[in-house]
Protein 1
Amino acid sequence: MPSVSLSTAKPTTARADALILGIRGDDDKGDLGETLDLLGFTGEKGQTVTFPAGEAAKASLIVAVALPEEPTAEDLRRATARGVRAAKTATSVAIALHPAGVDEVEAIAEGVTLGSYRFESYKTKKKGAAKKPTLKSAAILTPFARQSTATKAVERAAVVAAAVNTARDWVNTPPGDKRPADLVELMTAHAGTDVKVSVWDERRLAKERCGGILGVGRGSDSPPRLVTLSYEPADPVAHLALVGKGITFDSGGLSIKPGASMQTMKLDMAGAAAVVAATVAIARLGLPIKVTAFACIAENMPSGGATRPGDVLTMRNGATVEVHNTDAEGRLVLAPRHALAAQAKPDHIVDVATLTGACVVALGSHTSGILGNDEAFGDTVLAASKSAGESMWPLPIAEEMQGIVKSSSIADLRQHNPKPYGGTLFAAAFLREFVSEIPWAHLDIAGPSFNEGSAFDYTPVGGTGSGVRTLVKLATELATTQ
Ligand code: BES
Ligand code: ZN
Ligand code: MN
């Protein structure tokens, strides 16, 4: 991770490999007007151009990044990341984006760390080829540099961006290297002493009647695990329960996926990655919010012992569920966790899951769905996602779904809707059967959790760390509004 500092230096005198210079419209081009025009820099959103600084600045390169006249924090976060990526092999950058306040400084600092992320653990250094240098330091140029609120903002940004990058690392790790026991180890090591961790193995899961997760994990020779993290500050103002889907690989089980759809299914633990990384970040920030997080970890595989379509599972709350499609496994691992989460008597429950392809059909690959049982809490989560800069949008749990959930001919509930419409809504209606009266929001991050295209803004290829920033922002907001 690059070290991020603040400096009152002027853009022209700051020493660095590259100067990232924000340009807000034509009037802001100053002495660089002719150069920028020749390079075809129109100031259009997203544009960056790189050129040698010459006499214009002490830095070797200038990376001009287009900004709107009045950029939001998210505009600055993205522009910073674009600048950092355009600076390619620079090991130090100075960033002159003229933040208007401390929130903007924080967004820029996040942009540096999020934008310079790379996952290279599996790249072997080729003989003779020098490894691409990584960004080591970034100085944000601002007159607020000496204010303690600005320094604190940079520290907060480091914690949050590191959490996002940790979730990205876990998602990017190949599925054979993060089978349930391995993932538990990664998560436990990350939690360190900041939060308490307890792990249920398959024997304990059986004793605790967790039929859903055991049913999903049965086909794998690496049995399921439930990880519970708890962070308990001295005088918490609220208690937040988090639940994350942690399927380390989703082959579909006996309802096996076609090869192409299976290719990215190491992403299916992104929800668990988000809740664990966010919980540790909330603890490291010392927010006065008690957090209990559940990561439901299993591998969904076909085998002679796997759950079959037609089988009936008995869930922790006693409800029986007829399985129709073993590829709709997420709702089965999450549902009992909701019962446990409710047992902890939190004020709010949020679950995060790569639950349905239908959500990607509905909202595209950059927007998560928000569903739940409480409109006001849904609005709070939506507001948190907006200020964190993560795109989310509400979807309803349409009434028609409730009847279908209850329409199994042999069990209490059916797990899968035979009609291929509104799959995200049906999955949420199924989960709702296991949630009590506690305000609950369900985030379906199937689209944004993994970027199959090329990198853009601060979003890298592969795991994106989707959900982490919204959860931390939500906890921050609950801490100030309770
Ligand atoms: N993990 C998938 C959902 C998913 C799809 C996540 C694409 C990310 C990208 C989930 O377990 C799944 O397979 N869902 C099925 C549900 C269906 C069988 C009702 C789906 O979306 O096709
Ligand atoms: Zn899945
Ligand atoms: Mn599936």
Protein 2
Amino acid sequence: MSVPIDTDRLDLLRIEVPSWAYGNSGTRFRVFGTPGTPGDAFEKVSDAAQVHRHTGIAPTVALHIPWDRVDDFGALRAHAESEGVALGTVNSNTFQEEDYKFGSLCHPDARVRAKAVAHHAECIDIMRETGSRDLKVWLADGTNYPGQDSIRERQQRLADSLAEIYAMLDDDQRLVLEYKFFEPAFYHTDVPDWGTSYVHCVELGPKAKVVLDTGHHAPGTNIEFIVAQLLRLGRLGAFDFNSRFYADDDLIVGAADPFQLFRILVELVDGGGYGDPDVQLVLDQCHNVEAKIPGQIRSVLNVQEAVAKVLALDVDALAAARRDCDVLLANEILMDAFHTDVRGTLAEHRAARGLPEDPMRAFLASGYLERIAADRAGRAQAGWGA
Ligand code: PSV
Ligand code: MN
């Protein structure tokens, strides 16, 4: 059954996929391989392009440096274009070298801080070649024990390091700063919450925005509140979608708590963040045991389904119920939207746009997985650190 949804608004959905989702990942216990895992950034981009080809709403691929370092980023950009996608956000990585054992931009040693700043300069150069707008900074910086280092001094070092990086950005580039409340540091993290990220962004200037990642909050945190607040302040730069049961699990979007995904998207739409290119929606996921490309397709479709439910929300009736302070009716209207079965509407919507009604089945039937498993057999597989 079709439900009335503004399909023009549905068409505004764009989701960036992460290059690292196509490489092998795992836990500290084991990283399992998958047949056909890409060997390099070119193959990761080819795999990512399959997601866009079948869903039509995942046109860009985020890179991670150094994992995706190639000799010629112009060639990688051309390769992406030939596959029908573009290169997106460039993620820096200051958490996998010996020098970064005690931090990077906040490290007590000025030499290490300078090294971390220089890494970001390299990322900005790469962005010029790839045509990327956003430099995404997520730091593993923090301490494990009270007294290990000065929290206050680390904040100042962070502000100083970020200011150096910000000064290197071109006018059309942005720095987006992600927060995470713990891990790998367990006592304190230098950018633990949206408030800390926001404070640094405001200090830096208008080209600095906050990144919210679903898995980076304490259990029970009202994430939709943070979305509403950051949109209100004009500082929500990007949203990393994934889902979690316990910590930063990076599981399929909507797998753990589809209602939370819906509530977040309600605020995104209501706050004007949906369809706004300045609010970059990204998947940030790792597929440890499931097939990677289908995993990405499932996540993209779950976001699309949740967006369609939000677009089915009767906003006028909701506004009236709120005006009347009719608590139960307002809640009922919201829940009606959440319980709306939009799957038939979405299938029709895709068919009308020349896309497969069921992107997952269409991809599985395409033979691509069998082809890459054969073509890439016996070759080194990309993964963390690759
Ligand atoms: C590390 O926790 C992380 O998952 C962050 O969320 C980043 O966005 C991502 O890795 C890429 O560095
Ligand atoms: Mn993230």
